[in-house]
Amino acid sequence: MFEAHFQTFEEPESGVALTARLAAFREEMVRRQLTGFVIPRADQQQNEYVPACDERLAWLTGFTGSAGMAVVLVHRAALFVDGRYTLQAAQQVDGKAWTIESLVEPPPERWLEAHLKDGDRLGFDPWLHTSSAVERMQAACAKASAELVAVESNPVDGVWTERPAPPLGQVSIHGLEFSGESEAAKLERIRGELTRLKADALVLSDSHAVAWTFNIRGADVSHTPLPLSYAVVPKDGRPTIFIDGRKLSNAARDHLEQTAQVAEPAELAPTLQALAGSGASIALDSATAADALTRLVRDAGGKPLRGADPVALLKAVKNATEIEGTKTAHRRDAVALARFLAFIDREAPNGSLTEIDAVEALESFRRDTGALKDVSFPTISGTGPNGAIVHYRVTRKSNRRIQPGDLLLIDSGAQYQDGTTDVTRTIAIGEPTAEMCDRFTRVLRGHIAIARAVFPDGTTGAQLDTLARQFLWQAGIDFEHGTGHGVGSYLSVHEGPARISKLGTTPLKRGMILSNEPGYYKADGFGIRIENLELVVEKLVEGAEKPMNGFETLTLAPIDRRLIDTDMLSRKELAWLNAYHARVRAEVRPHLDGPTQAWLDSATAPLER
């Protein structure tokens, strides 16, 4: 009945093939006179979604998560993952060949200090690590009296005989009706930032920054309309964009050439060397610029200025056109979500649906809008114990039937040309337990606390993060991920620099879009997450002595009333929930058929204590 066009459910490779790869890789290491090598889950630009040709970590280890790193030594190997992926890594990786270690606390450098020996030569690919990451590895090697060695070519590629070719997705023009600002206006603002930084030029090493600056989109990676590319923006004169010409139609090339020179990627290094040769100060993004770029500028006589990419903050603050576009996208998405949630309520209790069925149905309802370009990430559809795996990806092998008594956690998003969506709902299948309702209500109260927050200019995500966790902490529980991330405008669903987390140090500004997604995960039991997207807006507070901000909720989808213990809610929390559901009903109901309208009326009916 339904099918998915934008994601697959195949099981990652495992077993004998991976064992043979690790053995072949070790032979290649020894041949290159290395006693160890670091394999990050990264491409040259530190993208979240990387092209197939850069999935070296998955190819070697079997781990398919979006963040991780491996270190292979002659007699031992370790995979480093964060809290989101601990369960997934244990399932995907051969525990006899690899140990699973923390990517965060303690960091991998502590492991290197403990396991490297005097005289060891640890190799790394300088195109796949930032300079700060290299400096941390260098310090760890120094403590162990080992040598850190930058390699000319990656030894993984030396044994990956069937490595895919680099992508050649066609570039499209992101018109003013969607972007709301011309390339010339954006470049003028970027040059203002160059003056502030006292830089002669800026390297755009983040393809998202290139796409935003030049109002283009692409098709080089999964789920994000990204044209893999670089650009150099000088303080004076025309910028240069470095992109494979085979990706450009005549129209796309003409569009770019109105404001920039267009060059092949191979010309990036000589262009930077020529700039640096004059002693220029060249700004590099510390989060995405490869260490190879820092070395190139420094070795040619230039001054690398490492710091935050100024374009990231410019891009994060959406203009009026982008805000109106994302609101339209969310209203469109809400219709698909209502149809999906009604379908689940109708079909799941009889035990006829699986996790994959849910993924395929939701994508089909989104495709019915006629505007879906892609899903914004692989849909997380986890029921029962699979729901407790924070970034679970269903495969045909792991696919579980949805049964009465389960919770179904479904986290999904869509890419529309006018906006990017991301929403999570947790659905009770049949009668939930008292424990499920308690945990769900605590998560909901944290979600409402973020949605209702009022905060002064200059407030960071770290200052708000506690609001989402307070009711979980009161029960001695927590969740091991951030509360929220930034979201792009028909770009990455995970966009910096702002986030709501313990590590969120960027002040939240009006026009930013962030997720609000506290959760709770009971290992081998169930998972709960409630996620809406929020727009930072001005809040008028009577008697306020400084500018105040708050959130406007963009997502429009019912929150499962069957899981809410109303006795745990305050009057203000209950009022917020009823007002939210009334808004969902008013904005979405006119676009639904009769049976789905009836379902929505029930799903959004006011709750009383």
From TrEMBL:
<keyword id="KW-0378">Hydrolase</keyword>
<dbReference type="Pfam" id="PF00557">
    <property type="entry name" value="Peptidase_M24"/>
</dbReference>
<dbReference type="InterPro" id="IPR000994">
    <property type="entry name" value="Pept_M24"/>
</dbReference>
<dbReference type="GO" id="GO:0046872">
    <property type="term" value="F:metal ion binding"/>
</dbReference>
<comment type="similarity">
    <text>Belongs to the peptidase M24B family.</text>
</comment>
<dbReference type="InterPro" id="IPR033740">
    <property type="entry name" value="Pept_M24B"/>
</dbReference>
<dbReference type="GO" id="GO:0070006">
    <property type="term" value="F:metalloaminopeptidase activity"/>
</dbReference>
<dbReference type="Pfam" id="PF16189">
    <property type="entry name" value="Creatinase_N_2"/>
</dbReference>
<dbReference type="InterPro" id="IPR050422">
    <property type="entry name" value="X-Pro_aminopeptidase_P"/>
</dbReference>
<feature type="domain" description="Peptidase M24 C-terminal">
    <location>
        <begin position="548"/>
        <end position="607"/>
    </location>
</feature>
<protein>
    <submittedName>
        <fullName>Peptidase M24</fullName>
    </submittedName>
</protein>
<feature type="domain" description="Peptidase M24">
    <location>
        <begin position="326"/>
        <end position="537"/>
    </location>
</feature>
<dbReference type="GO" id="GO:0005737">
    <property type="term" value="C:cytoplasm"/>
</dbReference>
<dbReference type="InterPro" id="IPR029149">
    <property type="entry name" value="Creatin/AminoP/Spt16_N"/>
</dbReference>
<dbReference type="InterPro" id="IPR036005">
    <property type="entry name" value="Creatinase/aminopeptidase-like"/>
</dbReference>
<dbReference type="Pfam" id="PF01321">
    <property type="entry name" value="Creatinase_N"/>
</dbReference>
<dbReference type="InterPro" id="IPR032416">
    <property type="entry name" value="Peptidase_M24_C"/>
</dbReference>
<dbReference type="Pfam" id="PF16188">
    <property type="entry name" value="Peptidase_M24_C"/>
</dbReference>
<dbReference type="InterPro" id="IPR000587">
    <property type="entry name" value="Creatinase_N"/>
</dbReference>
<feature type="domain" description="Creatinase N-terminal">
    <location>
        <begin position="21"/>
        <end position="151"/>
    </location>
</feature>
<keyword id="KW-0479">Metal-binding</keyword>
